[in-house]
Design goal:
Radius of gyration: 15 Å
Number of helices: 2
Largest sheet: 5 strands, antiparallel
Shape: globular
Number of strands: 5
Structural class: alpha+beta
């Protein structure tokens, strides 16, 4: 996804970097990239009214992640997280994400993660609820 433009993502969320995100090498530490991914997806679901992190009986658990790094991000950069759905299954969804630094046209990093929907009490996988599926379908690539 190194050459994937912003326009390939149906949703973008702007997130400021923080001073504490930088590591001793002077750039945002790799662990924070996963946090940017997770924040963008969950913020989208919350804003669309299909995720209540405190009381939903069915929730998405992250079961797989990856990230490829192309160029450095540093504080005080503004990150634009591109979000799209690459695959929508019965009980899982695969997101593709890209981090765009400031106004740059191409991503500084890109990756994916997979949510498997589970019953919160039993931790058993369940079908994605219809309202959630509808919202996720709107992000399909």
């Amino acid at each position: 996804m190194r050459d994937t433009p912003r326009s390939a993502f149906p949703h973008l969320l702007a997130l400021p970097t923080r001073w504490m995100d930088n590591d001793s090498y002077g750039h945002v530490n790799n662990v924070n990239y996963y946090s940017f991914f997770d924040t963008a997806v969950n913020r989208y679901l919350i804003d669309r009214g299909v995720l209540d992190i405190h009381s939903d009986d069915i929730v998405g658990f992250v079961v797989e992640t990856s990230c490829s790094y192309f160029s450095s991000i540093s504080f005080p950069d503004l990150i634009h997280v591109g979000v799209r759905v690459a695959k929508l299954g019965n009980s899982s969804v695969r997101y593709e994400l890209a981090l765009f630094r400031n106004d740059e046209a191409l991503p500084s990093a890109a990756g994916h993660f997979v949510h498997v929907y589970v019953d919160r009490r039993s931790n058993q996988s369940v079908p994605i609820p219809p309202r959630v599926r509808e919202v996720l379908a709107s992000l399909a690539a």
